[in-house]
Automatic annotation (TrEMBL):
GO molecular function terms noted in the UniProt entry: hydrolase activity, acting on carbon-nitrogen (but not peptide) bonds
Superkingdom assignment: Eukaryota
Coiled coil: none
Domain Amidohydrolase-related: 141-485
Upper taxonomic lineage: Eukaryota, Fungi, Dikarya, Basidiomycota, Agaricomycotina
Protein name per its UniProtKB record: Amidohydrolase-related domain-containing protein
SUPFAM superfamilies named in the record: Composite domain of metallo-dependent hydrolases, Metallo-dependent hydrolases
Region spans: Disordered: 1-29
CDD domains for this protein: Met_dep_hydrolase_A
Pfam families in the record: Amidohydro_1
Length: 488
């Protein structure tokens, strides 16, 4: 099977079944079989701890899992740039794609200081006085985008273990440059998905938000956590074996000022010993870790490819699910019940890149297919299409930072359109308005509306007609970050 051949036909699976692990429990779900004869889905009545649990009206120890935990804090996303509060920028005659769901329209946009002051209509001479003016000439003005699965400190290594090898000083500079590359490519919001060293994300976040360096608004993570036997990359993992271990780790991260923590809850095919369908986190550690994090106001994200790991996320309150490849009928129903609380960032570019681009770095297509990536991609794409059909929020974030998925090659939105069947507007809203929601500032980030932060892109063309425009930074004629011209 070629990596691009991902359109699953009803009842047909084209991957080689011999690439499934011997202990695989995955069965084709309804959205793949699409048979006329449907049997009712059997839903679990208890969670993995043996406690009663209703996946369609889910709660865990009194916490409603259909809405965000009220203990979660709203992160500070303000960037300090003294001296720019009184600046003004005007965009004239632009095609305004405001990410509110409305159709684009022609008009002017005024930025005053760090925020958008006026949207639509024609600006007056008085409003234009003293402003730096960009003539749009019908080009598209849209919000900056989000990467919801960001690793500034992934070093473009050709191996997993290589992520741990760079010395701290050089690693800090590398992470700084990665942050700048995201911004250069139009990503004005990033959510850290794990840091190769405990404080790297935090140092870069603080430098950006203090105005010391240029980069996206950023929510920092720490080292990913896993039991030693379940670590995908031991050199960048904090080992936790007991409930006290994970509580201590979470509390230390919260005290540092880290925004969210990550549990590595399933395997990864490239390791060949921990398969994607292997679940690596005991239920009691997931439950204890989520409770500790939420008690500190922190969210939890999870590397969860196996169906069991996805269900653990839903039973105990994980907030952001990464990958979600091998999801079953019952788990999909449970995820749909929590779609107002949970988002999925599948990082399918890692699967696609490993199949299509890794051969140049010594990992041939035959190897990628043999370890299961062609199988996983086909199954994941079918599941993501079903999630989208059900209104579950899918956000971009491609696990960039390996040799064949290097920083600066961000192309998730074209995958969303070409692989998942999203309309270009849907893909753009997932990267903008949903990004503002994930950053927990839905009225200040991800939309072109008065009062929102002025994080804007002037695109040379119309991404609703050609979504690939957003995969190439040369198509971004102007980038505004926090009301300041980054490019233009």
């Amino acid at each position: 099977m070629g990596a691009a051949d991902d359109d699953t036909q009803p009842g047909m699976l084209r991957f080689n079944p011999d690439t499934a692990p011997p202990n695989s429990r995955w069965m084709p779900p309804k959205w793949i079989k699409k048979s006329a004869e449907e049997t009712p889905t059997a839903h679990p009545t208890h969670n993995g701890l043996g406690e009663e649990w209703d996946p369609l009206c889910p709660k865990f120890r009194g916490i409603d899992l259909t809405n965000p935990d009220p203990r979660l804090r709203i992160p500070n996303v303000e960037i300090s740039e003294p001296g720019t509060e009184n600046s003004a920028i005007a965009f004239l005659n632009v095609n305004i794609l405001d990410s509110t769901g409305s159709a684009p329209y022609i008009g002017d946009v005024l930025v005053e200081g760090h925020r958008i002051a006026k949207v639509g209509g024609q600006l007056s001479a008085e409003e234009l006085h003293g402003a730096r003016i960009f003539e749009g000439k019908g080009r598209t003005l849209m919000s900056g985008m989000i990467d919801a699965h960001t690793h500034f400190s992934w070093t473009n290594s050709p191996s997993l273990d290589g992520l741990a090898e760079m010395p701290t000083e050089e690693h800090t500079i590398f992470a700084l440059k990665s942050a700048q590359k995201f911004l250069d490519c139009g990503y004005t919001m990033c959510v850290g998905a794990a840091s190769a060293k405990e404080r790297l994300d935090l140092v870069i976040k603080n430098a950006i938000h203090n105005g010391d360096i240029v980069g996206p608004r950023f929510l920092a993570n720490g080292k990913e956590m896993a039991p030693a036997a379940g670590a995908l990359i031991p050199g960048i993992t904090r080992f936790i074996e007991t409930k006290q271990d994970i509580k201590t780790a979470v509390n230390e991260m919260a005290a540092m000022g880290i925004d969210q923590c990550k549990f590595s809850m399933s395997g990864e095919e490239i390791t060949e010993n921990l398969r994607a369908e292997d679940t690596t986190f005991p239920d009691e550690l997931v439950a204890a870790g989520v409770e500790a994090a939420h008690s500190c106001g922190m969210r939890v994200c999870s590397h969860a490819r196996s169906d069991e790991a996805i269900m653990q996320c839903l039973q105990y309150g994980v907030d952001i699910i990464y990958h979600a490849s091998f999801i079953s009928d019952a788990t999909m129903d449970a995820l749909e019940a929590q779609k107002n609380r949970v988002v999925v960032a599948p990082a399918i570019n890692w699967l696609i890149g490993t199949l299509e681009d890794a051969a140049a770095f010594g990992y041939p297509v035959s190897k990628a297919e043999a370890v299961g990536y062609a199988r996983e991609l086909e199954i994941a794409v079918a599941g993501l299409k079903e999630m989208h059909r059900r209104g579950i929020k899918i956000l971009p974030g491609g696990d960039y930072g390996f040799a064949w998925t290097p920083h600066g090659t961000y192309r998730d939105l074209e995958h969303f359109v070409n692989r998942l069947g999203m309309k270009p507007m849907e893909a753009i809203i997932s990267a903008s308005a949903y990004g503002g929601e994930l950053m927990r500032h839905p009225n200040e980030l991800g939309k072109i509306i008065p009062g929102a932060y002025a994080d804007l892109l002037l695109v040379n063309g119309n991404p609703l007609e050609d979504i690939t425009l957003l995969s190439h930074k040369e198509n971004l004629d102007v980038i505004i970050m926090n009301g300041r011209v980054h490019k233009g």
